[in-house]
Design a protein that fits this description.
Largest sheet: 7 strands, mixed
CATH architecture of the largest domain: Alpha-Beta Complex
Number of domains: 2
Distance between the termini: 23 Å
Bound molecules: NADP nicotinamide-adenine-dinucleotide phosphate
Order of helices and strands: EEEHEEEEEHHEHEHEHEHEEHEHE
CATH superfamily of the largest domain: Medium-chain alcohol dehydrogenases, catalytic domain
CATH class of the largest domain: Alpha Beta
Number of helices: 9
Radius of gyration: 20 Å
Strand content: 25-35%
Shape: globular
Helix content: 25-40%
């Protein structure tokens, strides 16, 4: 075990607001807690939840708050561990107190090895969406048809591909610029907006077994109510209050085996994963502003 005392530059916010509340602070790690690995961060994905916590829409943590849930990087300190990880290993994963920082401490059980043929950008931006998409499909259970509202975003694009892998027929909504992308992922793509219900029924006249909403709009709720079977499941991951009691919220469950499944699929070329934009860590405010716009294709990431 080496480098137990380390300075990390971390992203923090002392108040809620737009990206101008973000600043950097040095943080000194002293010692390394049992069961944790210390990692020099190479890439960290920025999830909408980070930006929504910044604005105060979600107040999970006391101020000043830290950010980031996923990363790829290199182990710089670690004790003996049954998994056999050692200093110098290149890994990815999620969890810990924060990942928008130059050095992070992560529970060893959350780590998986980065395949050589995927980039640090892909590795550092897939843990959140992979584990969310797997949670969604596991919770929806054995279904044959699925309507996805917001199929081109981070969670949407992986959910489409995992659903197709399970033999589920998928119809996914997106804005006009992302329709071809959603089609390439294997779904029938339709544009959200006025006339959505009619467009859905045109391409999929039978009622769906289930739907999942990544956007949290009233339009998506109404479209699901009109096109999902009476005994079907209408779900949302958006974390927004819904006008209908039929909408079941789904929350991500961390599971490195689920992450491994998606990473293997990307490494083998079976699954597609796009990096929408890359920002140096020093430009955190610009990156968060772009995430807040809500039209990411794949994921926006920091490089360190
Ligand atoms: N519950 C959980 O555990 C959990 C886990 C992860 C994420 N989330 C939340 O789930 C949401 C989606 O996450 P994400 O990472 O996929 O976000 P994202 O990458 O920003 O994607 C957002 C998606 O929503 C679509 N969209 C935007 N406006 C829309 C509208 N009016 N109608 C239909 N679709 C619309 C976008 O499509 P276009 O770009 O084509 O407009 C895009 O596909 C976020 O709110 C996030 O905070 C929750």
């Amino acid at each position: 075990m080496e480098n137990q005392n380390t300075i990390s530059t971390i992203l923090i916010a002392n108040s809620y607001g737009q990206s101008d509340v973000l600043s950097f602070q040095d943080y000194k790690f002293e010692g390394l807690e049992n069961g944790f690995a210390r990692i020099k961060t190479k890439v960290a994905g920025i999830n909408p939840i980070d930006a929504r916590r910044m604005t105060g829409e979600f107040k999970h943590a006391a101020l000043p708050q830290t950010f980031g849930t996923e990363f790829s990087g290199e182990i710089i300190a670690i004790g003996d561990n049954p998994e056999g990880f050692k200093i110098g290993d290149i890994v990815l994963g999620s969890g810990g107190g924060f990942t928008h920082a130059t050095v992070i401490d992560i529970p060893i059980g959350n780590l998986i090895r980065k395949p050589e043929n995927i980039s640090f950008e892909v590795a550092g931006s897939i843990p959140g969406v992979a584990q969310t998409a797997m949670t969604i499909l596991d919770e929806l259970g054995p279904i044959q048809s699925l309507l996805i509202h917001g199929a081109s975003g981070g969670v949407g694009s992986i959910t489409v591909q995992l659903a197709i892998e399970r033999g589920i027929k998928v119809v996914g909504t997106a804005s006009k610029r992302n329709l071809d992308y959603v089609k390439q992922l294997g779904a029938t793509a339709i544009e959200y907006g006025d006339g959505l219900i009619e467009r859905i029924k045109e391409v999929h006249p039978e009622a769906f077994d289930a739907s999942v909403d990544m956007a949290g709009t009233e339009e998506a709720t109404q479209a699901s109510l009109a096109t999902v079977k009476e005994n079907g499941i209408i779900s949302s991951i958006a974390g927004k209050r819904s006008s209908s009691p039929r909408v079941i919220p789904i929350w991500v469950k961390r599971n490195p085996k689920n992450l491994q499944h998606v990473v293997d699929g990307i490494a083998s070329g079976k699954f597609n994963w796009e990096i929408d934009a890359t920002f140096p860590f020093s430009e955190a405010a610009k990156a968060y502003t772009k995430v807040l716009e809500g039209h990411t294709r794949g994921k926006i990431v920091f490089t360190f």
